[in-house]
Amino acid sequence: MSERPERIFPMSRPAGHVPPIARYSSRFDHRPERLAVLFMGIAAEEGGRAALALSDFLAIACRSADAPAHFDRATFLDANGRRNSVAALYWPDRSAYGRWVETPDVAAWRAGHRALAEDFGQWWEPVNVAPDRSETIAFAEYRRGLSACPFSRLEQMGETGYWGAARDRIPASGWDRLAGEVASLVALGRTSESRGLRLAIRPPSGLAVIRSGVSWSACGAEQRESYERNVRPKLDAGMEYLRRNPVETGCPALRQVVLTDNEGGELEEAYSLGLFLSLGHLEAWAKDHPTHLAIYHRAMAERRKYQEALELRTYNEIYVLDEHAADFEYVNCDPSVGLIPYFAARVLASGT
Ligand code: HEM
Fold first, then answer.
1. 349 C-alpha to center of ligand 1: Å?
2. Which of 126, 275, 332, 347 could form a disulfide with 253 if both were Cys (CB 3.0 to 4.6 A apart)?
3. Are 211 and 88 in contact (CB under 8 A)?
């Protein structure tokens, strides 16, 4: 890893700020040049089929010498009524991912032979960024996603509990505004030409990918009731707003998923996987939209009230892509999936 540039832009952290509660960020002792995460989904009309196909994929994924160091799986119903089975997979660095993706069985999956043969959709959205263009926030005893990886060490940090904290946690924000290459979304008006095809789309530089998760599994009656009454409806409304207003918010894709066990059983934890044209677009929604503001203020009040007895668990991880991002790929997907509606695609293969 090369030397960090000098900070040019000041942090937002107010002088003397004391975090309302202990929060942690992932650190990497192996100093990866680039992190590697793959968000991957399989969509089918019949849910069991998607879950089975994902299990087959994960079995192949884990057989390789460069198997992911960690993964979890989730599910959601997409706008087309298709059940999606989702995997989030993590490697210690991009070179391990690069070798993994070239192993013949994995390459065959990625190419979408099975998706085309069995008529399911497959989205493949890899994230490769320097650690300096990422951030995590976690509770020490509840580690998910990047923070749950065996190569992640959690360290307590002070950049939490004020607006701008997420940006402050991204080291590159000290010398880079992390602006997006594309300022606003324009729908291309595609209708049907993505089914039957394998498409590659270059994600625009600056695209911010967020995995923002919550677990209510450790909540007793009082805090569970508060989550169900005060938080969940607002979260759902906020996610619905983003899905319905992609152009206004600069959010081309928002998938609200529930984590599952390996048999597909739903757990009491969920996350939202959002793509935003830039970190600024994501911050604008978080800071200005009444749904997140309501959740945010409620969560902060509960932190102060319960302190160490707080039972609701939240975390997030944000990645800000640069101009060297890997292509996102879509095989046999509906034209509304991922980046397809908004960005030029190359056809890599046609199965029909
Ligand atoms: C149960 C759901 C949620 C709760 C309780 C919640 C609560 C919070 C809280 C308490 C913070 C401040 C964190 C800190 O720095 O200590 C925060 C920040 C943030 N949240 Fe959420 N949130 C939820 C869901 C989401 C979702 C789904 C997204 C995006 C898709 C999101 C985006 C953000 C962003 C970008 C920030 C950083 C703001 C900044 O530091 O400037 N949140 N949220």
1. 39
2. 275
3. yes
Structural domain of 166: 32-350
pLDDT tens by residue, the chain, 352 residues:
567 899 999 999 999 999 988 999 999 999 999 999 999 999 999 878 899 999 999 999 999 889 999 999 999 999 999 999 999 999 999 999 999 999 999 999 999 999 999 999 999 999 999 999 999 999 999 999 999 999 999 999 999 999 999 999 999 999 999 999 999 999 888 665 899 999 999 999 999 999 999 999 999 999 999 999 989 999 999 999 999 999 999 999 999 999 999 888 999 999 999 999 999 999 999 999 999 999 998 888 888 888 889 999 999 999 999 999 999 999 999 999 999 999 999 999 887 5
Residue 134 lies in a domain: yes
Strand partners, 275: 209, 253
| Residue from 292, 306, 319 whose mutation best tests the ligand 1 pocket (most atoms within 8 A of CB) | 292
Asked whether residue 14 is domain-assigned, the answer is: no
Claim: this prediction has a pTM higher than 0.85: yes
> Is 206 part of any domain?
yes
The answer to whether residue 62 is domain-embedded is yes
Closest-CA residue to 325 (of 186, 134, 165): 134
Contacting residues for 325 by C-beta, under 8 A, at least 6 apart = 127, 128, 129, 202, 203, 205, 207
Do the Cβ atoms of 247 and 34 come closer than 8 Å? no
What is the tally of structural domains in the chain?
Answer: 1
| Residue spans of beta strands (DSSP E) within 92-189 | 121-129, 134-137, 153-157
